[in-house]
């Protein structure tokens, strides 16, 4: 029988072993970095909203308080999306006939909600309550970014479980006094939290990282 | 000694089987039948995967049903067979020539069958890798106190080490097949699998070290694997399960099961491939005695379980009595009958060396251990602390299909193994012949 393998076969075989191992490592590294990349979490991608609403104009230039439109943010699990009536408080006076605002007028006339698309959507198995976070001193900005500068609303944080845990494991440095929760671009005079707040969260940490705190 | 020149007659005859162009209608029929069972496996796995575990008969309090019964059962085959093979290698026992190769192969195939059940019973099987501690974005380690992570480590360790033992043993034989192959294609395939084996003394020296190292690695597995499975039950608070003697019972009955499987496969291979010259009467005799002895140990442990329960607290005693007199008493009785009494046929040498009794004992012990696992799992859960939870368990067609399917997979893998690889170690057979001549 003829020679089974050429003289270079051994070299090729060894190279193949190294390549397969290296390939496995490369795939692992690729998955590692992809899972942490912006596209994997839909960061910076605006949704196609029914109305080209600009946070930068309303919250930024005009300085309307977050709670004016997201009215249940201090009390309920959901922050609440503005009803057509809320928009029409002003828009019955200004930009009355603007065609861009047609969905608002239709909604008001038919008494149906405006079909806003959610940018920050948590999975159903994660329990999240806006009210408790606001009253604990977690600022809007901490999770939603500088909304007051966004023409189109986008996600700036991954909202991954690891990201939630970053704060739940050590909240003391990330919370604000009550009067700064709704401010944008707030910088504390003293970046370290008061000693009693730190002491409280040292004790509360195990509660905050219980499975059943967020998965009920 | 180099290659073809050193191939002794026994090794030639062993190599004839994988190199023969045809294998006969019986082999094709058996492969077809196991193929049908694999089809059943695919359908039932698909149903469990797509529809979820709701297609099974499990429900509170029977959180575990066929899934864990079959898992514990297959692990028993794998563990018993691989431990047996490893001990033979380490002791350089004469029996290793006859049984090691297919015992290692059967162990590996049983691990593959076993591995399916913990994955499919997760409910969300596609997330099975969550039991592995990798840098996940959710920044939480797997729960190391969870039996699911124990399963992961136990099975992956077992699969790696058993396949190492099997493959390292195969390398010199693959090289012999490479040298004896009749077609260039077969020679190339065997040649690649032989990893450049040239029968040099240096390679033999390395091979002995590697083979024995792999065999040593198997030894702790018997304790780790079977005890892991047993602790999955023992670490719960179910009266019939919460017992420190459970790992011992699993290890002992698992060893009986592994030995019985080796005996069964030996009897079938010996007859179908005419390997009587290498798996001779002495080997069958010894194997039969081992199955008989380990069957007696398993029987002793059955008795011990009953006696220990009478000495234990009332709730434990009631749990045992319910297993033996309750609605699933038949399984407890069948376990004792099949796993302990059927091997008693092996007392007579002429029966040990035949075909029928080893096959009967092999199937009997395996069926008996399966019944024992059923009796423990289902009979143990049937009367829990709360009388309002006393229900009964009926497996669905899907669960039965999974069991039959894995048996088909095991049989098909074994048939393919017998078709394309030497089922008996050629280099050990050659070694034995040289020893005899010398």
From TrEMBL, chain A:
Spans traversing the lipid bilayer: 15-35
Domain of life: Bacteria
Protein name in the entry: Cytochrome C
Residue ranges constituting the Class III cytochrome C domain according to the UniProt record: 42-93
UniProt source species: Enterovirga aerilata
Pfam families noted in UniProt: Cytochrom_CIII
Stored InterPro entries: Cyt_c_III_dom, Multihaem_cyt_sf
Molecular functions per Gene Ontology: electron transfer activity; heme binding; metal ion binding
Keyword set, alphabetical order: Electron transport, Heme, Iron, Membrane, Metal-binding, Transmembrane, Transmembrane helix, Transport
Presence of the UniProt keyword ATP-binding in the record: no
Alphabetized Gene3D superfamilies for the sequence: Cytochrome C3 (3.90.10.10)
Automatic annotation (TrEMBL), chain B:
Transmembrane segments: 29-51, 71-90, 102-123, 152-175, 209-230, 250-269, 290-312, 328-347, 359-381, 401-421
Alphabetized InterPro entries for the sequence: NrfD-like
Short name of any one Pfam family annotated for the protein: NrfD
Keyword Membrane appears in the UniProt entry: yes
GO cellular component: plasma membrane
Subcellular location: Cell membrane
Gene3D superfamilies in alphabetical order: Formate dehydrogenase/DMSO reductase domain (1.20.1630.10)
This protein's record includes keyword Secreted: no
Membrane disposition: Multi-pass membrane protein
Family: Belongs to the NrfD family.
PANTHER family listed in its UniProt record: POLYSULPHIDE REDUCTASE NRFD, PTHR43044
Protein's name according to its UniProt entry: Polysulfide reductase NrfD
Organism: Enterovirga aerilata
């Amino acid at each position: 029988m003829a020679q089974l393998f050429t003289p270079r076969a051994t070299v090729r075989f060894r190279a193949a072993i190294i390549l397969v191992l290296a390939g496995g490592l490369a795939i692992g590294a690729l998955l590692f970095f992809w899972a942490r990349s912006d596209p994997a979490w839909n960061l910076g991608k605006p949704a196609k909203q029914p109305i080209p609403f600009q946070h930068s104009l309303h919250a930024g230039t005009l300085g309307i308080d977050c709670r004016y439109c997201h009215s249940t943010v201090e009390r309920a699990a959901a922050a609440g999306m503005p009803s057509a009536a809320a928009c029409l408080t002003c828009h019955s006076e200004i930009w009355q006939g603007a065609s861009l605002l047609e969905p608002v007028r239709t909604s008001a006339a038919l008494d149906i909600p405006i079909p806003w698309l959610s940018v920050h959507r948590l999975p159903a198995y994660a329990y999240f309550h806006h009210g408790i976070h606001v009253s604990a001193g977690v600022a809007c900005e901490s999770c939603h970014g500088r909304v007051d500068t966004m023409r189109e609303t986008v996600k700036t944080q991954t909202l991954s479980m690891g990201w939630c845990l970053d704060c739940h494991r050590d909240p003391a440095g990330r919370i604000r006094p009550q009067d700064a929760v709704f401010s944008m671009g707030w910088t504390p005079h003293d970046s370290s939290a008061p000693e009693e707040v730190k002491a409280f969260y040292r004790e509360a940490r195990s509660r905050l990282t219980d499975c059943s705190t967020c998965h009920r | 000694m180099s290659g073809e020149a050193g191939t002794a007659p026994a090794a030639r005859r062993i190599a004839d089987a994988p190199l023969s162009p045809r294998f006969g209608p019986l082999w094709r029929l058996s492969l077809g039948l196991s193929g049908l069972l694999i089809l059943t496996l695919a359908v039932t796995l698909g149903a469990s995967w797509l529809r979820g575990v709701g297609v099974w008969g499990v429900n509170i309090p029977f959180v575990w049903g066929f899934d864990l019964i079959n898992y514990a059962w297959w692990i028993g085959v794998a563990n018993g067979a691989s431990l047996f093979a490893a001990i033979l290698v380490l002791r350089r026992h004469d029996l290793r020539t006859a049984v090691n190769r297919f015992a290692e192969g059967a162990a590996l195939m049983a691990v593959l069958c076993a591995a399916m059940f913990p994955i499919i019973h997760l409910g969300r099987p596609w997330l099975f890798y969550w039991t592995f501690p990798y840098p996940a974005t959710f920044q939480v380690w797997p729960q190391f106190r969870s039996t699911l992570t124990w399963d992961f480590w136990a099975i992956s360790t077992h699969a790696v080490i058993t396949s190492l033992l099997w493959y390292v043993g195969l390398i010199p034989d693959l090289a012999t097949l490479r040298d004896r192959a009749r077609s260039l294609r077969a020679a190339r395939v065997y040649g690649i699998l032989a990893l450049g084996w040239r029968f040099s003394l240096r390679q033999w020296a390395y091979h002995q070290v590697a083979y024995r190292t792999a065999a040593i690695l198997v030894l702790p597995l018997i304790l780790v694997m079977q005890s892991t499975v047993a602790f999955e039950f023992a670490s719960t608070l179910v009266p019939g399960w919460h017992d420190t003697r459970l790992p011992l019972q699993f290890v002992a009955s698992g060893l009986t099961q592994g030995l019985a499987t080796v005996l069964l496969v030996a009897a079938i291979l010996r007859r179908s491939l005419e390997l009587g010259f290498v798996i001779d009467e002495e080997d069958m005799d010894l194997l039969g005695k081992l199955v008989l002895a380990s069957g007696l140990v398993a029987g002793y442990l059955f008795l011990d379980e009953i006696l220990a329960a009478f000495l234990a607290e009332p709730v434990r005693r009631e749990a045992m009595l319910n297993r033996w007199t309750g609605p699933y008493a038949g399984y407890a009785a069948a376990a004792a009958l099949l796993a302990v009494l059927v091997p008693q046929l092996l007392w007579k040498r002429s029966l040990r060396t035949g075909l029928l009794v080893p096959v009967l004992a092999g199937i009997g012990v395996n069926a008996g251990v399966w019944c024992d696992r059923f009796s423990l799992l289902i009979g143990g859960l049937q009367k829990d602390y709360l009388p309002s939870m006393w229900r009964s368990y009926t497996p669905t067609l899907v669960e039965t299909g999974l069991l039959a399917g894995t048996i088909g997979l095991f049989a098909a893998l074994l048939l393919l193994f017998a078709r394309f690889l030497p089922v008996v170690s050629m280099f050990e057979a050659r070694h034995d012949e040289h020893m005899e001549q010398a």
